[in-house]
């Protein structure tokens, strides 16, 4: 419309996402969000609603970028769940090492601040963690192991992912993060091998 300032919604979401990612929800002030996006409060509210609504849109934006990468990695090795988990961690470690984005993970950062979030945003965070767990669980589905074992491994892999994000925020060196991820992959491989061995013994 004439007289209305035009802007790239995705570019604005990307900048706002980085503010939430770096500062956390509680410390992402409207002034900081406005400075990063180049929009005043009125424009932010008019385009996205209040801070809570903008935060949810940023979570979805983050998920659309990185969730898609995780999904591709986990689906790239059908029939080889250990290799799929390795690929998953490789994507995570590549993101952590990327100097162009904040350290850590927006979801991990937000989960740690759950007490400051309203119910809807807290539910959104839990939902995104559940989606991640389901993706990992699907990658493990072809393994010869009981469903309970696979469920537990999926939860374990997601927990390690969140731990890597927290450690990276504390500036733990990349070599140590990769060691953690490698040990996690070994744990997945060993657990699946034991489960398969037990299954063969019962047969």
Automatic annotation (TrEMBL):
SUPFAM superfamilies: Homeodomain-like, Tetracyclin repressor-like, C-terminal domain
Annotated DNA-binding residue span(s): 29-48
PROSITE patterns membership: HTH_TETR_1, HTH_TETR_2
Segments forming domain HTH tetR-type: 6-66
InterPro entries registered for this protein in UniProt: DNA-bd_HTH_TetR-type_CS, Homeodomain-like_sf, HTH_TetR, Tet_transcr_reg_TetR-rel_C_sf, TetR_C
Keyword Transferase in annotation: no
A single GO molecular function term of this UniProt record: DNA binding
Record's keyword terms, sorted: DNA-binding, Transcription, Transcription regulation
UniProt cross-references to Pfam families, sorted A to Z: TetR_C_13 (PF16925), TetR_N (PF00440)
Annotated PANTHER family: HTH-TYPE TRANSCRIPTIONAL REGULATOR YJDC (PTHR47506:SF1), TRANSCRIPTIONAL REGULATORY PROTEIN (PTHR47506)
Record protein name field: TetR/AcrR family transcriptional regulator
